[in-house]
Specification:
Order of helices and strands: HHHHHHHHHHEE
Low-confidence stretches: 1-6, 8-41
Mean pLDDT: 82
Number of helices: 10
Structural class: mainly alpha
Largest sheet: 2 strands, antiparallel
Oligomer: single chain
Strand content: 5-15%
Strand order of the largest sheet: 1-2
């Protein structure tokens, strides 16, 4: 159950941060002139806009739709007018939770490990329906344009590497999943060693002592603390790989439609600098001209 709740809570608490990433114009306002640099104040967003958007009276950015779907499963399907998917989402989530609860009760009554496995699989199935509803909402969001940076970012947030596939950066997939495999391996190894030495230390500190090995208590304590620190480093490395995967998808999605004119050039040439005062006299001086055309 914890393995399901942790990702859901992570998405819930990171939704505001994701919205902060998408709050700027990322290609949705393409009718705006590129020469218009006037800064305009934005109207404060109101919670009721979530409901008026469902009635077709307002439009939302993808970040708003995604945050609504995180809190209320099926919101993205309602906004995208895919109403038939809403009962499918709730049926899948509800069935998974109900079956998981029933199997968990049977496990507590019989202590049969098979029921514990069935319970875990049921909760995982409910989580997959929830995850699928979020991904479907991102996929079906209507956007006119070749590349949508917000979509690429959420793709990589929901499934690492999917944003890179969306950007056609296929060669990055082995790097991303290689990073996950390496950090995951060291995470597991260091966690196992930490538990091993933690158990040894607890046995050595018991009264009377239950440890009869050759290592001293100080050495056991040193190894326990070292592997705990290495485990924490491995967790941080895993989070960094995940974060870099999202940042890469967002940045390179912006580069897809980055306008580079053929007239972009840089010219460097020698020249004379006139009217340089030196000892009361105006004398020309040598210099360098740098001309940037864009």
């Amino acid at each position: 159950m914890k393995r399901i709740l942790i990702p859901l809570l992570f998405l819930l608490f990171t939704a505001p941060a994701l919205y902060g990433q998408f709050d700027v114009d990322m290609g949705e306002g393409r009718d705006r002139s590129r020469e218009d640099t006037t800064v305009q104040a934005k109207d404060a967003f109101k919670l009721r806009t979530y409901f008026t958007a469902l009635a077709g009276k307002d439009t939302l950015k993808l970040a708003r739709v995604f945050s609504g779907a995180v809190v209320l499963p099926g919101y993205a399907q309602a906004y995208n007018r895919d109403y038939w998917k809403i009962p499918v989402v709730y049926a899948g989530i509800g069935t998974g939770i109900a079956m998981g609860y029933q199997f968990d009760r049977k496990f507590k009554e019989t202590e049969d490990r098979a029921y514990a496995l069935y319970s875990t699989l049921s909760y995982v199935g409910a989580g997959l329906f929830y995850w699928g509803s979020l991904l479907d909402g991102v996929v079906q969001f209507k956007f006119e344009g070749p590349v949508f940076p917000a979509r690429a970012t959420l793709y990589s947030a929901l499934l690492p590497g999917l944003g890179q596939v969306y950007n056609r950066d296929y060669w990055k997939l082995p790097i991303i999943y290689g990073g996950f495999m390496a950090s995951g391996y060291f995470w597991q190894y260091n966690a196992l060693q930490y538990k091993r030495y933690k158990t040894m230390y607890n046995h050595a500190m018991a009264q009377p002592s239950e440890y009869d090995g050759w290592m001293s208590v100080e050495d056991i304590k040193w190894y326990r603390d070292t592997f705990r620190r290495f485990r924490d480093y491995s967790i941080i490395a895993t989070v960094l790989v995940y974060a870099l995967n999202i940042i890469d998808a967002n940045v390179f999605a912006h580069f897809q439609d980055f306008d580079i004119s053929d007239d972009l050039s840089l010219q460097i040439q020698p020249g004379l600098m006139h009217h340089i005062a030196y000892s009361g006299m105006d004398l020309p001086g040598a210099g360098v001209y740098i001309r940037l055309t864009f």
